[in-house]
Design brief:
Number of helices: 5
Shape: globular
Largest sheet: 4 strands, antiparallel
Strand content: 15-25%
Oligomer: single chain
Number of strands: 7
Distance between the termini: 95 Å
Radius of gyration: 22 Å
């Protein structure tokens, strides 16, 4: 009997496959397209506060904080005068601070909208950015605060912006950089009337 207590058992041959942990409040794993959720916090009423990124890391990785209970969303630290985008540590701090004081009840996870709805939101975003004085450069990072409702990849968004520029060049123009072949988008200035 004593020998059976101290005998070694063979180690498993294959490590177990680690599946993403389901969210306790819904019992499933939510992975919105175009967004990488890196941390989750719970507020006082158990609504989820997310820290996520939409960057591909080519120019650095920046994070956004969004509460799925209230309508709080933040992508920039207002205390800084330069490089105001959140690092992971800063985003985690902002998410924790918000979760500590937020009492909003959990809301349903945003459903993935259809392509036509997202296309219309992008077109409205471009039209809303136009000014009378000059062309305005548009950055994909400007969409970070609403990426949980768009739920599309950067490639999909860039393809739609390129299509808009082709279809309506009076509203949006693109420029390609010679060395990087990277596209830059500019909302055209409004007409003088």
């Amino acid at each position: 009997m004593a020998l059976t207590l101290f005998t070694r058992r063979p180690a498993p041959v294959e490590p177990p496959v680690v599946e993403p942990e389901p969210w306790p409040e819904i019992g499933e794993t939510w992975k919105p397209e175009g967004v990488t959720v890196v941390q989750r916090y719970y507020n006082q009423a158990h609504a989820v506060v997310l820290v996520y990124t939409t960057d591909d890391g080519k120019t650095g990785t920046y994070y956004t904080v969004a509460c799925l209970g209230c309508h709080f969303a933040s992508a920039q630290d207002g205390q800084r005068t330069y490089n105001t985008r959140y690092s992971l540590a800063d985003a985690a701090k902002a998410a924790n601070e918000h979760a500590t004081g937020c009492r909003a009840l959990p809301r349903d996870i945003p459903a993935r909208p259809d392509d036509d709805t997202v296309r219309e939101r992008l077109h409205a975003w471009v039209r809303g950015a136009r000014r009378r004085s000059e062309d305005v450069q548009l950055w994909l990072s400007d969409l970070d605060l609403i990426r949980l409702t768009l739920q599309r990849t950067n490639d999909w968004i860039e393809a739609e912006l390129q299509q808009l520029a082709d279809d309506q060049p009076e509203i949006l123009r693109t420029e390609r950089r010679e060395y990087s072949n990277r596209a830059f988008y500019y909302a055209r200035r409004l007409p003088e009337n």
